[in-house]
Structure formats: C-alpha cells, structure tokens
Amino acid sequence: MNTPAIKNRLHVVDALRGFALVSIMLLHNIEHFDVYFSPANLPAWMVSLDKIIWDSLFFLFGGKSYAIFALLFGLTFFIQTNNQNKRGNDFRARFAWRLLLLFIFGIINSAFYQGDILTLYAFVGLFLIPLVKLNNKWILAIALLLFIQPYELFSLFKAIQNPDIKIANPISWTYFGKMDEYVKADSFLGTVYGNLTNGKRAVIAWSWENGRFFHILSTFLFGMLAGRMNLFSKSDKNTKFWTKTFIISIIAFVPLFILQKNLSGLIGSEAIRRSVQTIETSWTNLSFMVFLVSGFVLLFNTNAFRNVLTPFSAIGKMSLSNYVFQSMLGAGIYYGFGLGMYRYTGATYSLLIGIGLALILGLFCTWWDKKHSHGPLEAIWHKATWLGAK
Predict the structure, then answer these.
(1) Is the residue at 390 inside a domain?
(2) pLDDT along the chain (390 residues), means of 10
(3) Within a 10 A sphere around the Cβ of 185, how many other Cβ atoms?
(4) In a domain, 389, yes or no
(5) Neighbouring residues of 259: CB distance < 8 A, sequence distance ≥ 6
(6) pLDDT tens figures, 176-200
(7) What's 40's DSSP letter?
(8) pLDDT at residue number 1
C-alpha cells in the first residue's frame, strides 16, 4: 500500500493515500467499526446532527476511499515493477510473495476488524501478475470490462427474462446478523475467533454480492495505467488532464447519483432493481472517486493548498501501519471487550473520536518519519519482501 522509496518520490501520492486513510478512519468510527447501534436518550438536536454527519460522510467517502486505495495500489504495482525492470529484474514472483505477506497482515487486521480490505487486495492483486506485460490498450479494455460489472450484467439479463422471480436475501446478511454475538461480548478471544470465521465469510460474501472483486481489479488496472502515463507527476500536460478529468467526472456523477436515489421508484421488479443497483452504485462511486482524486491532485499542485494537504503525506507513507493500528484502536474503543463505547456514541461523538485518532496518528507519523525510512509494518513488509535477494 506504500510507494517505494525512489529519488523523485511522488509526494502527492503519499498525501492522497493519507487523505484516503483518514477518511476511511472517520467512516469506521461513525460505524463503530461495524457495530451498528444508536444510543438511546440522545437529545433530538443530536439525533438530527448524527444523521447529517452520517449521510454527509458516506456521501463523500462511502465506497470511494477504498477505491482511492485500490487506484494507488495499482500505481504502486507499476512503480515497483518498472523500477525492477530497469534493473533487469522480473518482479512478478517477488510481487506474489509480497501479496502473501500482505494477506498475513490482513489476517492480523481481520482479527480486530472484520471489514479488512488487505486480504481482498492481496487476493485480487494476484490477477495483476499475468496482465503486467499487456500494452495500454489491452489494460484499458480489461479495466473497462471489469468496471461495467460483467457478472452482474449477466444476472440482470436473467432477471429481465423473469422479472417476477423471487430472490433470496443476500447470504452476507446471515453472517452479519451473527456479529453482535461476539463483538458486543466481553471476550477478546471470542471476538477474534468470530471476526476470523463468521466475519470473514460475511465480508467475502458481501464483497461478491456488491461487485467489489471486479471493481477492485478494475481500479488496480486504472492505477497501473496512471503510472505508465506518469499522470501524478507535476506538469502542464498533467494539469490539463486532471482538470478535464475533474470536470468530466462530476458531470458523470450528477445523473448517476440522481438515478441511484430514484431506482426504487423507477424499477418495480426486485430482481432487476438489485442488479441495476449493484452496477449503478459501483459506477457512481468510481465517478465520485475520480472527482476526489483529480480535485486533490489539482489542489496539491497549487502553492496555496500544498502546505494544507502536505500533513497527509506522513500518514500516507505509513498507510499499512496506520490501517492496522486504527483497527486495533477502534476495536479497543468500541467493542465489548474494550471500552464498549458503541453504547454511548452516535455519529457526532464517534466523528470527534475519529478526528482525535487521526490527529494522534498524524503526530506519531510525523515524528516517526523524521527518524525512519519506513513505517513499523512497512519496514517488516519491505525486509520480508526482499528475503533471499542478492
């Protein structure tokens, strides 16, 4: 999840990754790290404020922040592969080993938070390996094919043939419904076991049901293309590209978002509506993600905003460490074996906790970055990646 140390480091990428991580952290906090619970006896004004905060954060970051991570994952894959190719090395086998290490980090993270994305990235990342030698046209074609959600389009075709068919509830609901049994309990080991068994099944099922596997690989490939085209370096040509992308993405997002909010009234068949909703939501999220990325890059490359956004860089350089640390801290704060704060905090209080955690991690990262070339887990990942290398 972190770019390699190179002479001309792309600081905008570090900052963008840090921005994505902080936004993920805020979402996880208002969700109580997947413990969906609304405290009783809150004043009416706070209930209203909680709803505004919840809706606003999910509008801005829900389904978008993880996609930014995926985009930058693909970019990192290109940078690492390209750097090794210049040295006459084939990075593919080493990258597969690196993904196995990431999967192990993901399992550790999953013990604390079942919604982990590291294991998903590690699995989907394997599909990059056979595609690395393809030219840009083929990569773009495959990325677009995955983006349109081919499996769900097939499901939609079947639903159109039989619109009155009754469809079962998503399988993930069954697993998510069991989560309260262990997350709200006071046993740490019980929570770890539940997260690694029931929780992983829930997340894998949910990711498949919502087209995340196709969406992740598609975004990986778009990130790889961005690396090949050197789009994140500062130049007049790239400024024009990001400006056009910014405009096009928001133009695409507006009708997609309006459609998303009105699907229930437009489509009567539940079978058709569910497939359309899965497809349309992924398109909406990706268009707004591109809007966020292009806007961030344009702002970062201006003198007025660079100093404001630069503090995200230290967090982004240690994204793997911070992603795991925030899961450990969040579980300790909200789950039953810890402080059990899910009982007392709505979105407003949880947002304040999330901001506090982001500030603490930001200060830690700034201090650590001055003394070390890699974050704590990044150092382990880097050293383990190159075990046995000459």
Answers:
(1) no
(2) 50 96 97 92 93 96 95 96 92 96 97 96 97 96 96 94 90 94 95 97 96 96 97 95 97 95 90 93 96 97 93 94 96 96 95 96 94 94 87
(3) 14
(4) no
(5) 266, 280, 284
(6) 999 999 999 999 999 999 999 999 9
(7) T
(8) 43
Domain range for residue 235? 11-383
Cα 199 to chain center, whole Å? 18
pTM: 0.93
Q: Crossing angle of helices 11-30/347-371, nearest 10°?
A: 150
Tokens of 255: 């009708």
Tokens found for residue 351: 């947002």
Residue 10 neighbours by CB distance under 10 Å: 18
Give the whole-angstrom CA distance, residue 248 versus residue 274.
27
Q: Measured between alpha carbons, how far is residue 146 from residues 143, 153, 273, 279 in Å?
A: 5, 11, 20, 11
Please give the helix or strand (H or E) that residue 204 lies within, else none. Answer: helix 200-209
Residue 32 placed within a domain: yes
CB 280 within 8 A of CB 263: yes
Domain count, the chain: 1
- Per-residue pLDDT at 41: 85
For residues 140-171, one letter each, b for 16 or more C-beta atoms within 10 angstroms of the residue's C-beta and e for the rest, the string is eebbeebbebeebeebbeebeeeeeeeeeeee
Nearest CA-CA partner of 222 in 203, 249, 240: 249
pLDDT computed for residue 390 by the predictor? 67
Does a structural domain hold residue 366? yes
What's the rounded Cα separation, in Å, for the pair 294 and 314? 20
Give the chain's length.
390
Question: How far is Cα 95 from Cα 155, in angstroms, rounded to an integer?
Answer: 34
